[in-house]
Amino acid sequence: MSLATPEPARPGAALELLVHGVGGTTPEAMLDDPRTVRVTGDKTAAIYRRTVDLHAEKEPERFADGRPVPEAYCWCNLTSGNGSRALWLLLLPFMVANLAHWMRPPAERQAAVVRLYGVLVRLVALTLTVLLTAAACEVALDLAAWQCAGSAACAEERSWLGFLSPHQGGWWSQPGRRLALAALVPAALVTLLWYLSNRTWSAYEAQRPPRGDLAAEPARQPRPALGRPGFWYGRRLVARLRAAHTAAGFLTVAAAVGGAAARYDRRAAGPLREALGWALEGSLLAAAVVVTWVVCRRGRSEKRLDNQLDRAVVGWLPGASIALLVLSIVYAGWSRPGWRSAGTLPGDTTFSVIALAQGVLVLALAAVALRLYRRAPHTRTVLHGLGGPAVAMLACALGGVMTGGVAQRVADWLDGPGTPGTGGGPIVGPPVLLSWQASVIPVLLILLLVPVLVLAVRTALAARRLAPVVESEYEGEKPDPVRTRRIAATRARAALTDAAPVVVGIVSGATLLLGAGAVAGAWLSDTVPGKAFAGGHPFVESAAESAQALGSWLVGFGFILFVTWGRRAYKDASARRTIGILWDVGTFWPRAAHPFAPPCYAERAVPDLAWRMSSWTGRTGGRLVISGHSQGSVLAAAAVWQLPAGTRRRVALLTYGSPLERLYARWFPAYFGPQPLAALHRELHCWRNLWRRTDPIGGPVNLPAEGDKPEVDHRALRDPVVYGRTHEHPLPEPILGHSDYQADPVFAKERTVLLDRLPPALPLPAQRADESQGSSGRSSG
């Protein structure tokens, strides 16, 4: 059961609030005590103390030596809880697209350009929803209901499709009715995405910041973005985007089922049905325009706590799209005795238009990002400001791989021993564009081998150069070549993190060019479904078919691996924790571009931490140091930004293994760049950062001394602490890298220095009232 923190007997207490990093841990491990008690919170995220420290504020004599009372904030269940989290793997492209929104370069007095950047990212995210729904329509409507059920050979082998076969002569045998029934599958997928988005918002993100008066603080200069009252409360935008994307999904299904019937009626039916078909398609087009307008019309509102909802949009838009879907299903189910399914549905055009739209949007996003970067260039910003467009391109590529993998595997399964499109099986196969996309995957992998080999060679050379540097840092020790090489190699491998932007840039650029080639090939070449190239030189055709076969195998293998990983994560807690590590990094940011992305845990964790710091310092008047490891340091910094100025002056920040500058400032410069971090340094009373050269994630924050504030970074900690065997360390000390910073003696020393630098404890409110009454009584006497 949860126990409330007791009211302290007197002021002067000191508190250390520990925040763990990625992957999570237990409160027992964080507090180094098997007996812990939950002070506040729930099973999802909570603050714990050692049992003996539950009433520590009433026992100041136990901490007379200056030690703080330790508390542990455990938030790992926000990202790696029950088995349903395995479903989040399906949302990976949405998560990556959402990251692109936050990667824009910083901008001063360029509000219009910033809004345009946000609009373009939201449009890219919208195309991903349409792409995923179109893939479900391709599988259910085209491959299963149109091609396989329309073929006697395929339907006979699949007994569950027998009642749809035209050779059975049943009520469902007409193509329109088959499509109407199959449309329930992608519609159910859209409904599931809507449900998950709505449910996770209520469970994770509907947490208000500690107080709503942050906007009332004197604003001598604009607040950093993460310090604004509404930054961690995006209820209005998420609800608006959720309605728009849900409507887009239903409209995609309606267009797939109703469009097929309308095309037949224009060829073979009378004027009444033709008019109905045109009216239906016109209504779908008008609804799509409204959805696009809703997505573009409004972005995030961060300067104030926005509790309003666009009820007209949230309430009517999904309902109208469902009504159009029902009308499309009824229209397609109208009896058409002469209609026969042959060939494929026009999926080539659909997927080509989506791919072309994504390419144009990414190029436009790159142009906007470059304009922003040129106004405030910085050498540490990744890819010269093009990190957001590059990641958006990767999101589109992930969506394309998942789409092609699902379609290819289902086509192979339905076709039995034949190969789709070769004439050896009963079905034609998936759209030819997916075959072209599969054929470029081997080329992309070959291109990726070049930077991988370069990095491997560079790492080996760096390790050799670092060997004498390592030995010079351990003066007086007898050199051990094996030990030296191991330490030097660890340092060299840790530096690979800084090369990630180059790899991402190469992959994104190659994906854009190869994707454009695939679209051009699908449109211009003389192709047949299922083949990447036909009608050209025999050698070229043979090479293209080999690339297509290898690419299809790789896509299928990746899809099977993807599903297997998700299934294992559903049953295995350790695998689920591994997935949780991925979400720890990817879902720190609120859902600003795609509402179906996995939920943002920081919208729960940051208010938790800010509330705890505000309430404890306000109740006790004591000093508080919040110490965060790895991703926990990012949460700690974000929570400190949310504190009122009076509380912020009573809080010290201790970060270790922190990716604040190495990852976040480089990839998200508008929010963690040099200027925001320098502002945080000025606003905090004291801040210290610990790091190691063997750490592949954490690093220095590069904030120099300013006024009476010392430099934030401690010099690099030695890792290992001891080079060889000594009397104090008779066994070899491990190379810790990113872990166990608290085991270093420097940690306790720096924590004590931070607490000593904080101002003296304030009197409690009750004591201040007593003192004021006493002084007034003396003056009246």
Automatic annotation (TrEMBL):
Disordered as annotated region, ranges: 758-781
InterPro entries: AB_hydrolase_fold
The entry's keywords: Membrane, Transmembrane, Transmembrane helix
Positions with biased composition (Low complexity): 758-767
TM region positions: 116-136, 179-196, 243-264, 276-296, 316-334, 354-373, 385-407, 436-457, 499-524, 547-566
Keyword DNA-binding applies: no
Ranges annotated as biased composition (Polar residues): 772-781
Protein name, UniProt field: Lipase family protein
